[in-house]
Amino acid sequence: MEITVNGEAAKVDAGPDDTAVDLLRDGLGLTGTKLACGTGVCGACTIVVGGTPVAGCLTASAAVEGRDVTTVEGLGGTHPVQRAFAAHDALQCGFCTPGFVVEAAAFTDRWRAAHGDVAPSRAQIAQAMAGHLCRCGAYESIQAAIAAACAGRHDDDGPAPARVEAWEKITGRARYTTDVRLEGQLEGVIIRSSLPHARVGAVRLGGAEVVDLLPADRVVRYVGQPIAAVAAPTRAAALAAAATAEVAYTPLPAALTTVEAEKPDAPAVYDSRAGRGGAPRSNEAPLSPAKWEGNLRGPSAASWRAGTATKRIDAARERGDDRLVSATFTTAAQAHTSMEPHACVARWDDRGELHLHLSTQAVGRVAVEIAKRWNLKPGQVHIVAEHVGGGFGSKVHVTGDVIAAVELARAYAAPVRVVLDRAEELTDGGSRPATRIELSLLADADGNLAAMSMDAWGDGGTAIGSNSAALARYIYGNAPRQLRDYDVLTHRPPGAPFRGPGGPPMVWALEQAVDEIAHRTGEDPIALRQRWDGNPKRRVLYDWAATLPAWTDRQPSGSPEGRFRRGVGVAATNWLYLLDPGTEIELVVEQGVVVARTTTQDIGTGSRSVIADIVRAELDLPAGRVRVDVGRTGAVHGPASVASSATPSIGPAAVDAARRLRAALPEGPVAASLSGAEGVRVVGRRRRDRRGYVTPFPLGGLSIGRGFAGAVHLTEVEVDVRLATVRVTRAWCGIAAGHIYAERLARSQCEGGVIQGIGYALFEQRQVDPATGVVLTDNLEDYRIPGIGDTPEITIHFHQEGWEHVTGHGVGLGEMSTVGVAASIGNAVHAATGWRPLDLPIRPDRLREGISR
Q1: Could you tell me if 482 and 303 are in contact, meaning their C-beta atoms sit under 8 angstroms apart?
Q2: 709: enclosing H helix or E strand
Q3: Predicted confidence (pLDDT) per residue in 762-777, tens digit
Q4: Is residue 568 within 8 Å of residue 718, measured between CB atoms?
Q5: Residue 265 lies in a domain
């Protein structure tokens, strides 16, 4: 087949079922075009064919024969849109960025030809980019970048990009695990269970070698659980081989809903102590002890004067006290669905050492787990995670793609790549567990918090570790409270830690109850929270939020009339300050450049840029004299990108390393002395906080620091009572996390957190067939995440004081930006309609039923 790609003629072989994406990525090695959904929904594979942007995954290879095709590589890094994306930090993990850039460049050219150098409106940009999704939520910056490019403000070179790897991602040069192709590489495919509960016998596959992926008891516990894997020279051939698999099942009874699972005679998900011990975890915290009774695990308690709390609540209920709010709140399972799916390329070398290219949030941690699983020494495991296309908690441990790739590589004696497709990702790639929370909140005659009771049932499929109620221990003072967490096990895919695990469900319930008490007592909801909350950093945020015009000019709850009703809601939250106290950063002078190395990885949060900015500032060096090399083993210890712990760990270590290097060089400007300092090496460490830590030693690599980060969310919604829809129009997020290391990147991350919270509140819900256990929402049409058109105007406010005892004076903020968003939206819907939503997401059917009452 002959085509013209980026102005050059090319010949390439194409199969009858190949798409344009196959042709470009596999035939020509143009990996800037990404494959994320495979159904034309996400836009990551956008290319221009004959002057028109199209979805490459839906375009047959025959349709581009003899045509002019432009990919992101063909823009050459000179298009104004690319400069604008770099300047406005219109990207995070970068996996979806090439598709956005190609579409935005075509739109900008059309717009300027028709309108001149005039910025389009937000609505016009959103309409043009409606076919693109960004799970990191970089939409606000994308809006700003496209508007600026259309206005002609980036026709010439502008300021240096906020993100050091921006140009690699904007031009398609950045290589992700899904882009890796080694010599002799095979493609692996996982054979998955079609039954929710069964004992598996033989797996027969005609003519191909299959590797076993079953647990020791050979029992599958959900539809989609890995059974075996096979490899072939192409993915199509591997899929064809997998389709011939004959699996000998002995079906077992299954509990596919929590109602079924809680029955006394329900089939057990784990019927032995060994099975329970191997259950996956749905949060990052150490597992609290709890008893098991069938499929119910719990309670695990984090109570404080529980007896007093129960007595006060029971007495208030008996007397019909209006200051007692009792309700049952529910939340749906939320899929992580990173744009780069789980992916691993595995290769065993002649010395028996294992080499992996891996999409992971935890290079060092996973290397340790792999060494233990395959009986290797730590130095025999080599991991590269150069660029990682998001994770949000789902890529922290050894996952099914890793196990399959490693076992296939050993069985076939060749490098093997395993990449989950979108259906696999939405089934077995991780999800925030659904919850049911029974909450009672009591205020006394003076309007103070008198008691709280929260029982939370986590619905994490085969996973355990529900911790929503436990997190209510740390907010609103020390009023008596009974807090109990339970896990209800079902034969459904396991949950996994997801950005603020346990936090959003807890805050969804608690903050609506707080709002209801304010409504019943006639007190300003912000003033009530300020009275109850003794945290001085959050009190400053309450002062900020209370003066916003959207709050001071709001209408009383339930008073708006007409078809379109606006309301403003508030929610507060906190989060533990976590860090990796063992973090180190190595600086080495190589050919006149200071190279920083550590085993941390950059999943889009900006770890490279934080390190680079600190080293440049401390040593007074230009950008070209500092290089950051992260995402690989062999360097000094770096933190996992989890629990908002990475930046407060690497920031102080980078400062220490830079100061050590300055001390190791001759006096005078560092830039002048680098040419004579070849090979000089120092290691900086994350120094201990002035007041130490809450935990005497790290747990899972993390220490709990002293103090809580805080956030206050204010959200404005518009409710269409005729169509029963909710649209978020504006959002404010105030965060008290101390020193901000890279402000533009921090704002991007927090804006993305707000957008993920909007998705949790309004759209996202994994649906499982209650009869078969099959995940029904296994594509990005049926499982909806927010798009650019769902993005409101977002204001981020940082309060940077109050963390002087912390080395570096700053803590993490990724969790804080998303945990309270859904609750603020729920309170805003109540303000607009007078109806209190109790269930997430706030779907049209629920809204219609609620407001009709």
Answers
A1: yes
A2: strand 703-720
A3: 999 999 999 999 999 9
A4: no
A5: no
